[in-house]
Amino acid sequence: MNEKNTKKLFDKYSSLFKNKEDITHSLMCFGFECDDGWYKMIYLLLQDLQELKLNDNFYITQIKQKFGRLRVYTSYTNDDIDLIIQGYGDLSYKICECCGEEGVLRKDLSWIQVLCDTCMNKTIKERELRLKKWALEHTKSKLRKEKKVSNKK
Prior knowledge:
This protein is an alpha+beta fold. It has helices spanning 3-12, 39-51, 79-92, 117-152, and strands spanning 60-66, 69-74, 104-106, 113-115. The strands form two sheets. Strands 1-2 form a two-stranded antiparallel ribbon. A two-stranded antiparallel ribbon has the order 3-4. Strand 3 (104-106) and strand 4 form a beta hairpin. The longest helix has 36 residues, at 117-152.
């Protein structure tokens, strides 16, 4: 998630992110480990958790995407916390992680991610460009090495 959205969530829900800078207690020092399309969903999740009026020992230790699903880890849990986290985890399977529109769980990439058709096509094009760039650089490198070998003879 970008820095602007990360800051908004940390500022608005600071009580849920105690110890966020202490890597021995929380991995939130790395921010939200997902794309910005899930910003609204995470905002609502945090709002629901804050409304539970949890005790001071509760804090979020990590929020990330794993196998296409929103994962939320906390310092402790109970049935209400589990219900909220499970609900938003289920919802995350239907929301494009990149843009926030309706998405589909994609398993045909080198990774698993929820994407809409537009973001899926964009991701494929970006990957193809990276592969072409890599192939070009690899070919140039190979030619330079061959040239050095032939110059030595």
